Amino acid sequence: MDAGLDFSLIASNILNPPILFFFLGMLAVLLKSDLEIPQPLPKLFSLYLLFAIGFKGGVELVKSGISQEVSLTLVAAIIMACVVPIYTFFILKLRLDIYNAAAIAATYGSISAVTFITAGAFLDKLGIEFDGYMVAALALMESPAIIVGLILVKLATSDQDDREFSWPEVLQEAFLNGSVFLLVGSLVIGMLTGENGWRTISPFSQEMFYGVLTFFLLDMGLVAAKRIKDLQKTGPFLIAFALLIPIVNAGIGLGIAKLINMPPGDALLFAVLCASASYIAVPAAMRMTVPEANPSLYVSTALAVTFPFNIIIGIPLYLYGINMFWR
Asked: In the 8-state DSSP scheme, what is residue 313?
């Protein structure tokens, strides 16, 4: 590991094909090109990426076994997924109403699988090893923030709103939505089939991976650029929040990673999970359960600010922190 804090690391990250295609997508919107990805395809790309990382994670989890290190990492992942929405809720409530504060807090308590995958590609490029069981941490951090966000709404509005959530629907959306279900299912199948299963499907799950990721990020660039105009509605407070809270969350994540002796590659992925924000699973759940919250706030901040910040600057920045404190 020879990467330090220098702008060449950030430049190197930006000059990755997937990142450059993300910019190409943004440029297409800004220049009013008619470039677009037919809508069923981004969904297919998303499902493919979840399947591939879940399956590989299951295989790696079997290889590593459930050691003390693995157990501590998974417990830390659950704790961060539950705690981040709580303190971000109180920060957001300084300027926002309860519903929007809770929806955004839940968004930032959950994770972005694509940011995680991009960080994995970044580590691969630098030759820094990481453990496949980090995918299990990814799966465990997807849903708790939804539950915590809804509990916050219920507690904060108990004196002014006698609403009753349909908890079975909430739990179904949190744990059985398509993304979570496929990710966890692929993880389990990877654990059941192990190396033999991996060899059987690796031409599909491994050789095509970065090509699909590149095309997916092209679409993400298109979507993010279209969301930029929504930032005019959020104001400087939310833009500052969307830029600063990932750094705060990553810092806390790195502190935990150091405390439980995660190796550098795993520590970076854990920091990225803590720093990222959901723009698929949580918004879907919030639309159903907290209709008072404005989707243009929690989707645009996560997708148009935090996501590009993390994949361009955040990932090299978090690695710099690791290089400083893991020596």
From this structure: I
CB-based contacts of 71-75 (< 8 A; 24+ apart in sequence): 72/260, 73/133, 73/134, 73/137, 73/260, 73/262, 73/266, 73/270, 74/133, 74/136, 74/137, 74/140
- Phi-psi map region of 290: left, alpha, beta (phi>0 left; psi -120 to 50 alpha): beta
Helices (H) then strands (E): counts for the chain: 17, 0
pTM for the full model? Answer: 0.82
What's the alpha-carbon Rg for the chain, to the nearest Å?
19
Q: Give the C-alpha separation, 84 to 208, whole Å.
A: 34
- For the stretch 1-15, pLDDT in tens is 444 555 677 777 778
Tell me the torsion sign for CA atoms 220, 226, 228, 233: negative
The Cα-based distances of 263 to 185, 256, 323 in angstroms read: 27, 12, 11
**56 close to 63: Cβ distance less than 8 angstroms:** no
Q: Is-contact 248 84, C-beta < 8 A?
A: no
Which 8-state DSSP code applies to residue 33?
-
Q: How confident is the model over 59-118, as pLDDT tens digits?
A: 888 887 888 888 999 999 999 999 999 999 999 999 899 999 999 999 999 988 889 988
Q: Which tokens hold the place of 211?
A: 């090509």
d(CA 264, CA 5): 15
